[in-house]
Amino acid sequence: MYQIEFQLAEQPLSGLASFPTEQPIADKSQLSGILAPKPVMVMLHGWQDNAASFAPLFGPLAEHFHVIAIDWPGHGLSAPRAADNFYHFVDYVDDLAQLVELLDQPQVTLVGHSMGALVSVCYAAAFSDKVASLSLIEGLAPLSEQTFNAPERLRQGIQSRQRYRARAQQRQSRSMATFQQALDLRCSVNDVLPEHIQPVVERAVLQREGRWYWRHDNRLRCDSLYRMSPDHIDALISALTCPVLSIIGQTGYRRLKLQHPEAQGWKKLKQVEVAGGHHCHLQSSERVAEEILLFSSKFNALAE
């Protein structure tokens, strides 16, 4: 894997790639000739994870794809958004659109985990001509709620920002004595083994004056000011034209298990279940990579 950086309109976006290139990439001409002849796979991590979430998948996938895994803004090595931004969900879709524009490919294959899966669905719905296939790991359509809850959602979102502002200085001073402490915390929160989550934690922390700090932007914890309605979600799902692979963990979110996908508007969805929980792509990486390759091979001209 190689470090990579893309210069978007407002900020740089860091990540990992299966190929070396000059940094940063600010113009599509910089990748001219580098990405042929393999198709391009873009991997999008979940909330408070980073590009290293896909490190175990790089080996098998890079045999057939040019693989790029990004750090969303405020995650991993990517810079936080501007001080007046609180990470609106739809802005991630804009980030992805800018990235795909820089890649300058007829189509890309998207692999998303959790929040990254939700962003993938939104992008593929809006730009159906740019996506060959979707592989969604422990994530489907964006979160939604009935419209009558909009006032309460707005109230809760504003109050979460007020709490963030009141505690900003206190949050900045929080630290850990050792890397192991950070690793143990993530193992506990995500119910995974240290060897599964360690690459993610390594990319998620920094050491300063003998203490360890999380890199991610604390504004990520602020509640959203709004959520889409069920009608919005139905419209997004209906707009999907590419094939969709849904990978869920046996002990992951049960609400993601679909008995009749077509009844919920999914026209071309296949769902498989693998061992593991919400981070099943770390716990069953070989199986997940195998499923993604098997599925995508039907819709991409994989290079030999």
TrEMBL record:
**The organism's place on the tree of life at top rank:** Bacteria
Q: Name one Pfam family in it.
A: Abhydrolase_1
* InterPro entries membership: AB_hydrolase_1 (IPR000073), AB_hydrolase_fold (IPR029058), AB_hydrolase_sf (IPR050266)
What molecular function does GO assign, one term? hydrolase activity
Question: Which of UniProt's keywords are assigned here?
Answer: Hydrolase
Keyword Oxidoreductase among record annotations: no
Any keyword Hydrolase? yes
Every AB hydrolase-1 domain range = 39-249
Name used for this protein in its record? Alpha/beta hydrolase
